[in-house]
Amino acid sequence: MSELLSTPLTADLVRGAPGLEPRAGGGVTPHRLPPSARALADDRLTMAEGQTSGVRVAFSTSATVVELETLATRLAYVGAPPQPAGVYDLLVDRRPVASGTVEGGRTVTMDMTTGAATLTEGPAGTVRFEGLAPGAKEVEIWLPWNEAVEPVALRTDAPVAPLTGSGRRVWLHHGSSLSHGSVSASPTQTWVATAAIRAGVDPVNLGFSGSALLDPFTARTMRDTPADVISVKLGINLVNTDLMRLRAFTPAVHGFLDLIRDGHPSTPLLVVSPVLCPIHEETPGPCVPDMAGLAEGRISFLAAGDPAEVAAGKLTLAVIRDELARIVDSRAATDPLIGYLDGRELYGEADAEERPLPDAIHPDAETQRSMGERFADRVFGPGGLFATG
Fold first, then answer.
1. What are 222-233's pLDDT values in tens digits?
2. CA–CA separation, 315 vs 305, rounded Å?
3. Which of the two ends of the chain, N or C, has the fewest CB atoms closer than 10 A to its terminal CB?
């Protein structure tokens, strides 16, 4: 077996990470928020933005063998079964070819009853893809959506070069854990990745588990990130954290959209409301772990708010959908490139009957793919806000 060529991992080989940084000792550390935003983030957002949802190592090459060495940090939960190793997807000319995993890495063990976290160190590992067709091609290695992955080294049996001139539009998206990946089977099967591949666009996924909270520094990141089309999916985290009431929600949404518009005054901008989540449709937050479920070794959630408090301004998903539709309608009078999508078009009542949310909050892998296909067809397809032409 001939010795493989090693190519330094630089910013022009990594896509989908606005906060990419050089890694001590070689390689890169992908971040989905820049340092200025990370300095203001809490621990949960810091953990979420470091996970590499939508991040991929992309290059052109004639190689038939590709290796990527990485150091991953994965999550585990006290009392729950171990999480499987994150999946790496290989795409050649935008078509799925193979998948693999990397052993080793660090583990952060979370105690959901106390919030305590423990870090266990582990070594870097390598995912290897071989038997690729010869000849020039575009190669993408999509990193796990549910791990913080630091690419350490790229090795191939032929030279590589950065991708140039793909002609694909950049889609910038922000959302919650559903956008982050939920329980997707692989990084190209999150609903955002599914939609992007189906629509032929390059995604920058700012979906942050538990952290779509109208943070101004997230809006500033979107303001400063180049994009051809932009979407924001808002609602579920504002309810399940019981973060604010309606009086604060409305101006916070306007402020968030205003910040994005400061950098993208004429970019198509889509506001997406929550998908159906039965426990929070009419019941406010907070959302709490189902302790009986934890005792049985499974993770599930309950809505702990009081529906009677909705009259005093507490947020439910029904309230948020109505208000987001009203906000977009009011802004459309002076902003013709803003649009609204009811999230129940991606997952609604009929879907919930067929595929209930396994933990009462997050859709399963099949639903993630279905949501992505529907989004691509409704939003990027003919007549959609992001349609070409």
1. 999 999 999 999
2. 10
3. C
